[in-house]
């Protein structure tokens, strides 16, 4: 029997134009939340599990063929669909002071629906989506029905949900709480989390914001929130604990372009939760010296996933576009082994992480 896919995304492929706000503009850059999420999953998977990573790339009449050739070097189960009657989805990304980012589509977008997936994709172990609360609930319900139709006893997949920035507003808090019941991990960035409380509750701590966000989440007691904080790393809220993980790059000069970093982070996180990663859960436990009595398996599993997310994201932001896979060493990207970078991060951050588990 063919192995189950570890990861699939409802995110799109997009050709980006990036305006840095200082007169510098980069055009026709490979991108999109779906592609970067797949990149993160592929970085974390290692070559042995590369085929367990899947996404859909919709190609229009203007699609650069070198982009397909580049993606195919990753060795994933990415599906390419061609429609010469339309343009490839394109978007403009604008950056400004204090990590400000603006985004708009410049051609018609083609969203992915549950019906867009092949049967193999629909049965993946984990899914990534970036969308509104209502679309999140619709996708999860549709996915669940599709999976049950394929196999009556099919388990629920792990869902990683990235709320769409435009709808991170006080008016959407109740909708977000409702959608939270449908997913395993919610991951806004720090600014988006604060935007939910822009009507006067900014004085709340991050922890209180998360608690308020998850209020009335019903029976989803194992709900996890991962807040992405850019150069400050990320914070994992799980089972009453708050764990801070620093970013891989502490030297800002190593960060050339943040575009896609958050999506790559979440793809790595999703693949980490699938278990189809290298290094794996056991390597993580050994590296941190964890034992079950002091760190429950769910916490260790989430930590493994977030470390993979952190390391994967570090590659995405070192250049404009995506990192380059070494053709002679398919575990190395941008000239450094992913496994070596993972262990280097773990070695550097072990005291900081372990101290928080006491």
Automatic annotation (TrEMBL):
<dbReference type="InterPro" id="IPR029056">
    <property type="entry name" value="Ribokinase-like"/>
</dbReference>
<protein>
    <recommendedName>
        <fullName>Carbohydrate kinase PfkB domain-containing protein</fullName>
    </recommendedName>
</protein>
<dbReference type="Pfam" id="PF00294">
    <property type="entry name" value="PfkB"/>
</dbReference>
<feature type="domain" description="Carbohydrate kinase PfkB">
    <location>
        <begin position="166"/>
        <end position="274"/>
    </location>
</feature>
<dbReference type="InterPro" id="IPR011611">
    <property type="entry name" value="PfkB_dom"/>
</dbReference>
């Amino acid at each position: 029997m063919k192995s189950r896919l570890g990861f699939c995304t409802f995110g799109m492929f997009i050709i980006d134009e990036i305006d840095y706000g200082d007169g510098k503009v980069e055009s026709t850059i490979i991108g999109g939340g779906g592609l970067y999420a797949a990149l993160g999953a592929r970085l974390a998977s290692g070559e042995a599990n590369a085929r367990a990573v899947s996404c859909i790339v919709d190609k229009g009449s203007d699609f650069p063929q070198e982009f397909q050739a580049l993606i195919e070097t990753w060795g994933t189960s990415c599906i390419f669909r061609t429609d010469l009657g339309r343009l490839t989805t394109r978007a403009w990304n604008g950056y400004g002071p204090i990590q400000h980012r603006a985004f708009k589509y410049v051609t018609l977008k083609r969203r992915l629906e549950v019906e867009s997936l092949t049967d193999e994709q629909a049965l993946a172990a984990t899914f990534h989506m970036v969308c509104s609360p209502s679309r999140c609930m619709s996708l999860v319900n549709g996915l669940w029905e599709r999976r049950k139709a394929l196999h009556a006893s099919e388990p629920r997949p792990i869902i990683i949900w990235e709320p769409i920035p435009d709808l991170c507003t006080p008016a959407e808090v109740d909708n977000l709480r409702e959608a939270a019941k449908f997913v395993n991990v919610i991951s806004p960035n720090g600014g988006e989390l604060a935007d939910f409380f822009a009507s006067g509750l900014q004085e709340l701590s991050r922890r209180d914001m998360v608690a308020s966000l998850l209020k009335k989440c019903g029976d989803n007691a194992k709900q996890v929130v991962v807040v992405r904080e850019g150069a400050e790393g990320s914070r994992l809220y799980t089972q009453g604990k708050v764990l801070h993980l620093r970013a891989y790059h502490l030297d800002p000069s190593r960060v050339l372009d943040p575009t896609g970093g958050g999506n790559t982070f979440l793809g790595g996180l999703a693949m980490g939760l699938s278990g189809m990663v290298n290094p794996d859960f056991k390597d993580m436990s050994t590296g941190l010296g964890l034992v079950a009595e002091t760190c429950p398996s769910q916490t260790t599993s989430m930590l493994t996933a977030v470390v993979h997310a952190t390391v994967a994201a570090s590659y995405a932001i070192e250049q404009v576009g995506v990192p380059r896979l070494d053709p002679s060493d398919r575990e190395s990207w941008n000239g450094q082994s992913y496994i070596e970078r993972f262990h280097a991060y773990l070695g550097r951050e072990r005291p900081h992480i372990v101290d928080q588990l006491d």
